[in-house]
Fold these 2 entries.
Entry 1:
Amino acid sequence: MSSVFKALSDPTRRRVLEMLRDGPKSAGELAGAFDVSKPTMSAHFAVLRDAGLVASEKDGKSVFYHLQMSVLEDALFGFAQTFGWERREDISTTGRPVLKEGKA
Amino acid sequence: MSSVFKALSDPTRRRVLEMLRDGPKSAGELAGAFDVSKPTMSAHFAVLRDAGLVASEKDGKSVFYHLQMSVLEDALFGFAQTFGWERREDISTTGRPVLKEGKA
DNA sequence: TCGACAATTAGCTAATTGTCTATTTATGAG
DNA sequence: CTCATAAATAGACAATTAGCTAATTGTCGA
């Protein structure tokens, strides 16, 4: 949990996650979108991977990263539940969980 | 946003927030629940205050902290919305927003 | 095998973090 | 005014972080 929030505390890393919303992208493709060196981006990827927020697969020369939605979901909603919000699955229209007012 | 996630990345600070769920508590009362020095706790309070997650009021010799629910809510749900979750207000039974499957 | 390319690792610096003890500030009681 | 209590500030220190350049590893095409 701490490692997830730590990972989310950097704007570059949050933007990487957003870039992965619609599918996997290579390390180079991701790095190209930011104004920092490749090794620096590689370190950011490592933080995200260690937090479990992304997973990587090697394909030829490239490494592709993809979002681990469920980890993001569990951290965000798991914490929110502590404060009385409630995850709802029942009325979902898009397939992702819903967080609703809890009885907590 | 970064400062909120940074604040949430420490377990001590998350527990402080949880302790404030049911109402304000003094700095001493909060500090007493943890196994670190008062000044260390004071630093944690400052991080939470700078992130906007808590506010403080002085009452006599004591300082009382209370949760700023809306800031927590906006950070958590604002970020979640980026990933297609949707905040719902309509079916809430406890008065807190609901996060549901988005069309995003 | 050689060269180019993609990505990570190594090694470094500067800045930030979490922790401590000691000190200071502010309030209230006698 | 003086003392005790609550909390924050100051100053020190070890550990971590984000960033860089340079070097290394792995994979392909010629």
Entry 2:
Amino acid sequence: MSDLLERLRGRGWRLTSQRRVVAEVLDGDHVHLTADEVHARAAARLPEISRATVYNTLGELVALGEVLEVATDGRARRYDPNAHRAHQHLVCSGCGAIRDVHPHGDPLAALPAAERLGFTVTAAEVTYRGLCPDCRP
Amino acid sequence: MSDLLERLRGRGWRLTSQRRVVAEVLDGDHVHLTADEVHARAAARLPEISRATVYNTLGELVALGEVLEVATDGRARRYDPNAHRAHQHLVCSGCGAIRDVHPHGDPLAALPAAERLGFTVTAAEVTYRGLCPDCRP
DNA sequence: TGTTGACTTGGACAAAGTCCAAGTTAGGAT
DNA sequence: ATCCTAACTTGGACTTTGTCCAAGTCAACA
């Protein structure tokens, strides 16, 4: 994630302690935190960080293409730092756990031209749903 | 949609004017209204209907499997009455328009067992994104 | 080590959804 | 027909999630 910070500095970002902490919190695999969760974890390291700054920073990271916004449930948006490797999400209907998965083939290919209704289609997001081993009856 | 009301009555639903109006508002193809939109349209016919009742009724319809909840953006949930024919969604990144589409093949088939991480996977929701003819530059 | 524009802050506000006590009513029982 | 009652609806308070802004702070360049 430190290479991320360098990349952003190269793009003219001012490297503040707040942004550094937010980037650090988002490091790792299978990370899909809500903005409030990011704020809580960031505040553990930098107590005076404000919610507004977390929202601002997440929005900027998304706009720069460094973080993905995922809407797996109609509730809070979640932020996924794994923006540079194509993947989809597998969500447990019991506990809400979210894992990154890699289906084979390009999901876009399944949509025939006749079904595209004149749209220029550029992306496909897939959410697989089921029960994780811990939630299975 | 009147057959829906009959089906629900058979399941022990009390058929109130509020529920009737909500079901009527949700009739049609490519309908993906938010709860507030449903409330506004229902209130046009039945002015005293409350937001709480709309939320209750939508929740019940979803629990009964008669309506789908879709989360295509991180904002309000949308309600899709087309629950009995498998389909996916195509969303315009410009204006937010949502259309029902029918990719070929079963999206579930693209996820190999090794990628299922021990989950029992039962569904796949696909959101295609792009620009509709009106929003294309 | 000063300066300055970019960044951060806290709080007010807005949007989306939940919950509850009190009032109303659909539909079976009489 | 009309009564009864559990089921349903209501309005409002409350929570969660997200946005906006004026005032204060600070990173990075000179």
